[in-house]
Design brief:
Layout (H helix, E strand, L loop, with lengths): L1 H26 L2 H22 L5 H20 L2 H11 L13 H9 L6 H12 L4 H7 L4 H17 L12 H20 L11 H17 L4 H14 L6 E2 L2 E2 L12 H17 L5 H14 L8 H14 L3 H15 L1 H9 L2 H4 L3 H13 L3 H14 L3 H12 L3
Antiparallel strand pairs: 1-2
Helix pairs in contact: 1-2, 1-3, 1-5, 2-3, 5-6, 6-8, 6-9, 7-8, 9-10, 9-11, 10-11, 11-12, 11-13, 12-13, 13-14, 14-15, 15-16, 16-18, 18-19, 19-20
Length: 406
């Protein structure tokens, strides 16, 4: 019995997106696709213990879900209308020559369409592609089940009302649209990496794992896209440090982490992806540079062995692509290691007007002021960082650092 339950769980993770995507393509309706897929998996839970796990679970689930969808359409007596709607709204005959023909990729681009608000893209992607339940998504983003359900329902309605096509974008639109997909996946990963809610676990391994799984899927569907590879490498290298990031409910800073606890396999895979992109000889994008920065960090066996000159050079390269205050703040941390905290503090203070409400800005200032022996100013900066931080483990870390000033 437990083997069958495990088989259903494995099939859900491996086949959910494929089943939903196949039904969406056939029937042109996200509601029908989602509900029929859910009914198919519920049927599997009932029948597989008695009948045995089928040789091809994905095909069995798709066939069962298709029958469920047809039954629903017949019950509603709207079959002709639904089919007409499918031809009108979800026509894929206009795909440009050479377009990637994978229903799951079409589904991802539909869920991440820029016509939807970002929070709706995230929720819809986790539900339709990731197969997470509404309560799971609600818990992840500190919303009620009803509110999250309404958000997903509105997103699906917007897709239908706005006549958003179920297709891979054309070649000229693909780079911009891929960047939007990656932004959704990185947002999911970041929420797991450092959860923002005070009432949640400080690190959500389920969310980071789901973001990595979905990014692997996009990577398999778009193997030649450098930024997809870069984002996957970035996630892997950050995820590798997760076992050492929290201890006794407190965030552990990079310089204090037990590097022996890092996941060597994830680091090796991340480094391999970074090397592959370097060997490609193509100018790297934002995610590739961030992955390279993390590759340098994870190459050092000790914090003192970190190649800060290389990290600073990478941040300079990143700043040319993304001249944001966040990048400038992170660059200043590398400057502190090379040129000292006073030079870095001057660079950080220049960002005050744009980052006054960002807790990491105040935490960085607090640390630099501490290193300069300016304890009272440091304490005030820590107080502001603690006030703004939402993550419980990070708050505990900042509080301890502040209290050490006494």
């Amino acid at each position: 019995m437990s083997d069958v339950r495990e088989a259903v769980t494995r099939a859900h993770r491996a086949e959910w997106a494929r089943v939903v995507a196949a039904l969406t393509r056939r029937f042109g309706d996200l509601d029908i696709a989602e509900e029929a897929a859910a009914e198919a998996f519920a049927t599997a839970v009932e029948r597989w213990p008695a009948d045995g796990v089928p040789p091809n679970p994905g095909a069995w689930l798709t066939t069962t879900a298709t029958r469920k969808a047809i039954d629903r359409i017949r019950r509603e007596n709207k079959r002709d209308g639904k089919h007409e709607e499918a031809r009108t709204l979800w026509d894929v005959s206009a795909e440009p020559p050479g377009a990637i023909d994978d229903d799951r990729l079409r589904l991802i681009f539909t869920c991440c369409h820029p016509a939807l608000a970002m929070e709706s893209r995230v929720a819809l992607t986790l539900r339709m592609v990731g197969g997470l339940t509404v309560p799971e998504i609600a818990r992840a983003f500190l919303a009620t089940d009803d509110a999250m359900g309404r958000r997903i329902t509105r997103a699906k309605a917007k897709i239908k009302a706005a006549r958003i096509p179920y297709r891979v974008p054309s070649a000229e639109d693909l780079p911009e649209r891929v960047s939007g997909v990656l932004a959704v996946l990185f947002l999911v990963f970041n929420e797991g990496y450092l959860a923002t809610g005070p009432g949640t676990d400080p690190v959500r391994g389920d969310l980071t794992a789901e973001a990595i799984r979905l990014t692997r899927l996009v990577r398999a569907l778009l193997p030649g896209d450098g930024e997809v590879a870069g984002l996957l490498a970035l996630m892997l290298l950050i995820e590798a440090r997760r076992p050492a990031r929290v201890a006794a409910g407190e965030l552990v800073a990079l310089d204090e982490q037990d590097r022996g606890a890092w996941d060597a396999e994830l680091i090796a895979e991340g480094h391999r992806l970074v090397r592959e992109r370097l060997a490609a000889g193509v100018a790297p994008g934002r995610y590739q540079i961030l992955a390279a920065i993390n590759a340098v960090h994870t190459s050092a066996r000790d914090m003192r062995d970190t190649d800060w000159s290389q990290i600073l050079a990478l941040y300079d390269q990143l700043a040319r692509l993304d001249p944001s205050p966040i990048v400038a703040l992170n660059r200043a941390i590398a400057v502190a290691e090379l040129d000292g905290p006073e030079v870095a503090l001057a660079a950080v203070d220049e960002l005050a007007g744009r980052l006054a409400g960002y807790h990491a800005f105040h935490a960085t200032r607090a640390d630099l002021l501490r290193r300069l022996g300016r304890s009272e100013e440091s304490r005030a900066a820590y107080d502001r960082a603690i006030e703004l931080a939402g993550n419980t483990a990070e708050t505990a870390y900042l509080t301890r650092r502040r209290d050490q000033l006494r």
